[in-house]
Amino acid sequence: MNAWNSGRMEGVELCLVRTPEGEERVRHPAKVVPSIATNRSGKQVKHTDMIATGLIIGIALVALVVLLLVKNGRRPRLRVNGVLIVEVDRGVRLMNALAAQGVLLPGTCGGKGACALCKCQVFSGGGPISPQEAPYFSKEAIRDHWRLACQVVVKGDISIRVPDDLLPPGTASLPPE
Fold this sequence. Notes:
Elements: H1 3-6, E1 8-9, E2 12-13, E3 15-18, E4 24-27, E5 36-38, E6 44-46, H2 47-73, E7 77-80, E8 84-87, H3 94-100, E9 119-124, H4 139-143, E10 146-148, E11 158-161
């Protein structure tokens, strides 16, 4: 029996492989060639490249999840007139969050955005002005950040200004932003 039939050559294990063209070849296991696959466009891609790409995507997804958990893990902070800073629930209307802190804005429409009495300035975190509240403000007022508190939903940290006389007793206001 010769070395080719026995699968051994001078004490070294050999492998019989078939090429994509159909021919059989003998190869030494120490000279293992990375496996090759074909992508959708027919281009050959090494499995090591696919694994590396998968690892990069996996790491990016884990980082994104961690970032979202850290950001969404704490309650949003509401900053009123630069001095009153409290944590509030995400998803509540600004008017309700303010009322829970003793800042009572006037309003008679029950939060429907119809009376336009709950005006305040939202400097950051309020999102874009809604179609419900836009008719109550001039372009200049919108540029000056005026909003209806009953129409602003707290989604993250938010900084606002209300008339000083609406702040709880003993709260001093900082100059406007």
